[in-house]
Design goal:
38% strand, 28 strands, 2 helices, four-stranded antiparallel beta sheet, mainly beta
Length: 404
């Protein structure tokens, strides 16, 4: 089991990385297929706060505090903490601590957070965490009110639970929360584990597993802690009205491009890792398909289905290049102009980072550029308000992409 970890899901691969320290190189090497691809060489510079390096304990997500002229990096740690780091002087503090968090898998903790798009006025942030309970735990999406004007006095409290979902097994919980350009809150759920989606949950829009949901936390309605946007694609017909798209295995990070594209990285089973441009109502194939190939262990569900029933990924790669896809962001910064407008992502197993030139349409294919292999067990990417990108390892190393 442990000798063939690349065939297992993201939580297990991340767990394994905690057992063996990862060593990040500042400069890349180019291996395998990357030798023959277009290349842009970048370096990974340690994030410095004051006079010291910023480190984290099992980071799962990171973002910059909105509205702060003095950059403040906020990092989610698996054990339930949101920790802030003021980069100018190295001061640090705790913005939020969530309790009742399990610790066996990285997904059994605080795995995602998002500031409200109008945070400076609303002072609200949103989290996705796994509450410790029997079986696979319970996914919880919460809204928190931030009090305190000075950074040193800021704390998040007054939790309002928006959504809860019992997880049937360990792993495959997804965990991203992000606001779209439409102002609604999107959340990704995996298939609920453990392997091969044994109950075909991801092809069933009467449950939340393997879906992205879209809700309106500002306008609760019909006994829910949130509203349902009227243009959600599955409002009627026996589906769950929150569902925006489905057919995912274990989405580990998604985000939105400047043109509003929802770009999602889905961790594969045994053969393929895939990146999708997600459309309302789209079916991305799992577990009948893994990327663009048939997934034979789900043949029993495939009768009468053809490739036309599914949305193809814009990019996929085989296990020779990596084993757990870590989604990132569109690069909108100025320091590395060769990457302008491209989607930057990495692989947790191989330590490689790539850039994709997105296709003009969701059914097109993306062109890939190699940025190199650095040796890190990536767990998440971040982006500052200038559009520059950052990457973290599961072991707690935090780096910034810079030109070489």
């Amino acid at each position: 089991m442990f000798t063939r970890f690349v065939h297992y899901s993201l939580p297990l691969t991340l767990l394994l990385s905690f057992l063996a320290s990862g060593c990040v190189s500042a400069h890349p090497s180019f291996r395998g297929a990357d030798r023959d691809r277009p290349q842009v060489e970048v370096a990974l510079e340690p994030i410095i706060a004051g006079k010291g390096m910023v480190k984290a304990k099992s980071p799962t997500d990171m973002a910059f505090l909105p509205g702060s002229e003095d950059p403040v990096l906020v990092v989610a740690e698996r054990e339930g903490l949101l920790i802030w780091h003021r980069l100018s002087d190295g001061s640090t503090g705790t913005l939020l601590q969530i309790t009742r968090i399990g610790s066996s898998y990285i997904e059994k903790g605080l795995v995602g957070f998002a500031f409200h798009p109008d945070f400076t006025n609303t002072k609200t942030l949103y989290t996705y965490h796994l509450r410790a309970s029997r079986d696979g735990g319970q996914s919880v999406i919460s809204e928190w009110q931030v009090s305190g004007d000075a950074l040193e006095s800021m704390t998040a409290g007054n939790q309002r639970v928006l959504f809860e979902l019992d997880q049937p097994q360990e792993g495959h919980n997804g965990g991203q929360v992000a606001f779209g350009p439409d102002g609604y809150l999107y959340t990704a759920f995996g298939d609920g584990g453990f392997q091969n989606d044994p109950d075909n949950r991801s092809q069933d829009t009467s449950n939340y597993y393997g879906t992205i949901i879209r809700i309106d936390p500002a306008n609760p309605a019909e006994g829910r802690a949130y509203g349902i946007p009227s243009d959600n694609p599955f409002i009627t017909g026996g589906h769950l009205p929150e569902v925006w798209a489905y057919g995912f295995r274990n989405p580990w990070r998604f985000g939105f491009g400047p043109d509003g594209q929802l770009i999602l990285a889905d961790v594969g089973q045994n053969n393929r890792e895939e990146i999708d441009l997600v459309l309302a109502g789209g079916n991305y194939g799992w577990c009948i398909r893994e990327g663009t190939i048939a997934h034979k262990k789900c043949d029993e569900y495939a009768e009468g289905r053809t490739g036309a029933d599914f949305n193809d990924p814009i990019y996929e790669y085989e296990r020779s290049e990596g084993g757990a896809l870590i989604g990132g962001y569109i690069y909108t910064g100025k320091a590395i102009p060769q990457l302008a407008g491209q989607y930057i992502f990495g692989d947790h197993i191989s330590g490689s980072i790539w850039a994709l030139a997105l296709p003009e349409s969701p059914d097109g294919k993306a062109a890939v550029t190699a940025l190199g292999t650095f040796g890190g067990h990536w767990s998440t990417f971040g982006r500052d308000r200038k559009g520059e990108l950052y990457v973290a390892t599961a072991e707690g190393d935090l780096r910034k992409l810079i030109p070489r």
